[in-house]
Amino acid sequence: MCQLLGMNCNTPTDILFSFEGFHRRGGLTDHHADGWGIAFFEGRGCRLLLDDRSSVESPVAHLVRNYPIKSENVIAHIRKATQGEVNLANTHPFMREMWGKYWIFAHNGDLKDFTVAPGQYYRPVGSTDSERAFCHLLEKLRTRWDTQPELDELFAAVQEEADTLATHGTFNFILSNGDILLAHCSTQLHYIVRQAPFTKAHLVDDDVTVDFSSVTTPYDRVAVIATQPLTDNEAWTPFASGQLMLFRDGAPLLSTMMDAGA
User: Fold this and answer.
1) Is 2 annotated in the active site?
2) Cα–Cα distances in Å, from 203 out to 19, 199, 208, 229, 238?
3) Structural domain span for residue 116
4) Spatial separation of the C-alpha atoms in residues 40 and 61, rounded to whole Å
5) CA 166 to each of CA 41, 81, 138, 169, 242: distance values in angstroms, whole numbers, following the listed order
6) How would DSSP label each residue in 54-113?
7) Phi (first) and psi of residue 49, to 5 degrees
8) Less Cβ around it within 10 Å: N or C end of the chain?
9) What's the number of domains the chain is made of?
10) Helix 129-144 and helix 151-165: axis angle, to 10°?
């Protein structure tokens, strides 16, 4: 299965520490070596970087590791191909425009017997089940509303579509429009919210430690979402199977099961 990473913050923050461990899962500490990508929202724009090489060998990953891009919403993905060739068109995250905003999507899983007719607004470019699911999800939302609805309505609609898509197989995903970040779990997904008082964190995939108290302010708040915890000395919260969560300003705002992990 693929590896997912998401970050949602209340102030622009770089993802260097998390990415240092995460990128090693693309062919070094794990066998996911069929391409990778990362998206950084910056204001209304989005910086999307993709490579069909493994993240441990990718010059693009080297750039990200040494370039402290600050963003309030980040989505990264390391691919283990199950459907579709290994090429750029099939590399996550995927990006589309809806309601005047960019939307970014990355998926971990495998959807069987999932075919849909070409949409009016959204059609896949590549040949993955993931991009088909993304286009189908946006098509359903765009058909229902001409402008973005209230968050509770949007959340309920995404949950409804996620439940339907999950009947075809594993559907772990992260979705963001630069303002909010949605994360859905079928099998494996974890999150942590870092806020004052900040402490030290140590990576699982590399012997690297950071003291967040030395690089933050008392007002910072950062939520990190990952397939598997990135650190071994912090308390990560597992998602429940079928759970959808909406993060804003570095904290869970909506969840189908708030008592299960908020």
Assistant:
1) yes
2) 10, 13, 6, 9, 18
3) 3-260
4) 13
5) 27, 18, 16, 5, 8
6) -TTT-HHHHHHHHS--EEEEEEEEE---SSS-SSGGGPSPEEEEETTEEEEEEEES-BTT
7) -120, 125
8) C
9) 1
10) 140
> One digit per residue, pLDDT tens: the chain, 262 residues?
679 999 999 999 999 999 998 888 886 777 667 889 999 999 999 999 999 998 889 999 999 999 999 999 999 999 876 776 889 999 999 999 999 999 999 999 889 988 888 899 999 999 999 999 999 999 999 999 999 999 999 999 999 999 999 999 999 999 999 999 999 999 999 999 999 999 999 999 899 999 999 989 999 999 999 999 999 999 999 999 999 999 999 999 999 975 433 3
Q: Is the pTM of this model over 0.85?
A: yes
Q: Which residue has the tokens 């950084």?
A: 40
Q: Would you mind telling me the total number of residues written for the chain in this entry? A: 262
Q: Does residue 108 contact residue 172 with C-beta atoms inside 8 Å?
A: yes
Task: Write out the two tokens for 224.
Answer: 């990190």
CB 19 within 8 A of CB 6: no
| 2, 9, 46, 185: the active-site residue | 2
**Domain CATH for 208:** 3.60.20.10
